[in-house]
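fyi for ur records
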Amino acid sequence: MAGLDGGGGETYDGDPDDVEDIDDGGGGGGGGGTSNSGSITGWGDLSLPAVLQSFLSNPRNFIIGAVATTLLEQVFGIVTTILNVIFLVLGGSAPGRLNAPGETLGLIDVPVFVADLLASIGTDVGSAILQAIGSLNDPVFALASNAGPATPVIITAIVVGEVIVVLWLLQRLVFVVADVLQLGGLTE
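which gave:
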């Protein structure tokens, strides 16, 4: 911005320290304000704000920049929201931990959740089976303990017989499940 004429031939260049040096043309009285010649003195820095200067220097680029900035912020906001939804659907609310307690489960958590559920059911069923076998073995082992030196042989025979029966039952169970799920080739 060009300097302001102080009336006495001096110009004001925007430096607040030079305000007292400008002759206001009023004969030495009064301090600041508008003098009789209509020039401005004593107002400090009269430069325009940077946004207004940018607009005045190139209005077209200023408007394009403002519109483009707004549009890009909206596009980035929408894309960020879409990505957050995708991550929530796939990974749940805690994508770094599978099947974390208290989290919203995602698609990645479903197999882990099902495996944990089946393991807990399997643990309960397995515990029930082992308790049943144990309750059957207690009286048999008590009788076998009266056999004297043949006790270890009798107990070993009982345990081996139980293992064979359990494996045969598991094989039959696998065949039944394969037939129910129609997995051909296992039972043929």
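Residues 1-7, 21-35 have pLDDT under 50 and may be disordered. thats all i got for now
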